[in-house]
User: Which sequence fits this backbone?
């Protein structure tokens, strides 16, 4: 049970410490039973990430979920803290799901963590307004664990159900000028890979810092996508556009 308590304590401490320093959420072991659970918290913590595995006992696939192609952390820009509705919910006594939030330049993230105390499935509502400071409007969202994607207003919610010891990370990106760039969805905090989003007379230009599957939402009809000047394939599912990037790229989205 200490693994759940560890994340809870870090998030609560960050309310105070995060106002004047980069919080350190401590090391973890990638090969541990709770390795991915801890990794998810570190991915959106906004702090440094380091592991304490034995030599030659690293889960590199898990580490890659936290970093770009150069090994740099895909780091959220603030310090993660509990969402308002979890602020006074003591994890030692509660059997509710625990939520923490953070922000990237073009998105917000909410991490949801299930306690270990019983094996019943738990459900919690996650909404864009869980990310403190988000304005009114519509947001495109993506669930890291289920792949669910949809559009919600600020106060509308997505129900997330978790088993004991499980987690999810939901990314929210506000729709501005017809587009919302969610990020690289192979990564736990793939929104941190988005470096810029610019409007052009007939589309958008997006700079991305690493390879993987890029996901964005576009209200307008797309004619084609260009990666570093070369036309590329993409999939469109109800306005959610995905394409594969082999490296960090500049994407030109040309509208019809």
Assistant:
């Amino acid at each position: 049970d200490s693994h759940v308590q560890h994340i809870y304590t870090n998030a609560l401490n960050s309310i105070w410490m995060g106002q004047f320093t980069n919080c350190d959420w401590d090391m973890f072991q990638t090969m541990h039973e709770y390795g991915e659970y801890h990794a998810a918290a570190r991915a959106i913590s906004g702090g440094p990430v380091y592991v304490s595995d034995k030599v030659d006992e690293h889960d590199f696939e898990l580490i890659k979920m936290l970093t770009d192609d150069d090994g740099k952390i895909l780091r959220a820009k603030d310090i993660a803290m509990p969402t308002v509705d979890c602020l006074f919910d003591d994890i030692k006594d509660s059997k509710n799901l625990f939520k923490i939030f953070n922000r990237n330049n073009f998105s917000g993230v909410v991490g949801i963590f299930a306690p270990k105390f019983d094996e019943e499935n738990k459900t919690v509502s996650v909404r864009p307004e869980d990310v403190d400071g988000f304005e009114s409007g519509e947001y495109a969202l993506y669930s890291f664990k289920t792949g669910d994607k949809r559009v919600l207003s600020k106060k509308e919610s997505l129900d997330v159900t978790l088993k004991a010891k499980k987690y999810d990370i939901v990314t929210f990106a506000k729709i501005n000028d017809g587009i919302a760039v969610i990020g690289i969805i192979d990564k736990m905090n793939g929104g941190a890979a988005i470096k810029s989003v610019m409007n052009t007379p007939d589309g958008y230009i997006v700079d991305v810092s690493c390879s993987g599957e890029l996901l964005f939402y576009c209200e307008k009809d797309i004619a084609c996508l260009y990666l570093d000047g070369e036309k590329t394939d993409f999939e469109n599912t109800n306005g959610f556009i995905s394409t594969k990037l082999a490296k960090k790229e500049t994407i030109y989205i040309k509208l019809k």
